[in-house]
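Notebook entry, structure prediction.
Reason for the run: the old model in the group folder had no record of what sequence produced it. Starting over properly, with the input documented here first.
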Amino acid sequence: MLKKLGVKLRREREKLALTQEELAKSVGLSSEFISYLEIGKRSPSLESIKRISSYLKKDISFFLEEKEMPFSILFEEVSHNKRASAELKKFKKFCEDYLNMEELTGRHIESAPLYSQVIPEKLAIEERLRLGLGNAPIRNVFSLLEMNGLHILRQSITEEAKISGVFVYFRAKDVAFSLINKEQSIGNQVLTAVHEYYHYIKDRNDGPIIDNPDVFVNEYLSLYHPREKFAQIFSYHFLMPPSKIRDIIERDMRSKKINFEDVIYLKRYFGVSTFAMLWRLKDLSYLSYSKFKEFQKIDNIAYEKSLFGEASVEELILKGKTRAIPSDRYKSMAVTVYKKKKDKEEKSKKA
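New structure, fully documented this time:
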């Protein structure tokens, strides 16, 4: 792998007529280090590869073997966190099993398009139009995303791992995977899944991504790469189209004064978390900032139970014995593979 990396690096450097010294100075590394990289005698850190890739205007994946991507980058990124490494190992095994089952069954899903659209609001509209969703709420987000090429695993992840979602893409196979933390409420799992879907249709060639819980706190978004803010904007527009929200408020509620019971009604309608609905209404100017903060303090689960007799499943955290929830598609293929294996064993016995 190091030799191939070195050959690619030298080729790209020479294309730009750069000396090793010039490249080293531009990326803040020593010329000796660049020299050793090019002859395959030095293993670069993730940060070094990032600097070189950025300067040469290449994806990180360009310099690394497909079999080393994307998990080698992910494991290095969480090398300081044993919990996160353990969770990623489980996810890696899931990806390998899923790819193997697709090979055995011959079932491969065509990938969603890779968009160049840079305005997330417009991208959400385009993607909903492509999927024929109109402006109606999405009743089974996980299945929808899975059938459009994003393989999803919902897995219980400990708080210490600091993982809400993960996105990985195997370029050679043109296959994408997403890990969703099952310890979140269903509403937040939905938001995380669509957030990772944005990375899939927009950022898939930019390397693997780990999204920690702070990425989904709007006040912290400015601290992260701009793509995270774009993914969040896309998610809100994709899940809660402004045209549909306005339609419900103006045709049904007939008032611009939103009460908390209206918020609960809307969030149940769109299948999202209460917080996501509050933020969306504030963003569309149906809630003032002071009202937004006031509503945030209300025990929304208790309030919802008082209105409807029970909280919607979107607000609940499903903490059962199941540590992971693979998709229905995954389960279906697993059964097919199992039956094929049993048939093969039976034929072998008869022979």
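Summary: Strands lie at 150-155, 165-170, 175-181, 209-211, 324-326.
The old model has been moved to the deprecated folder.
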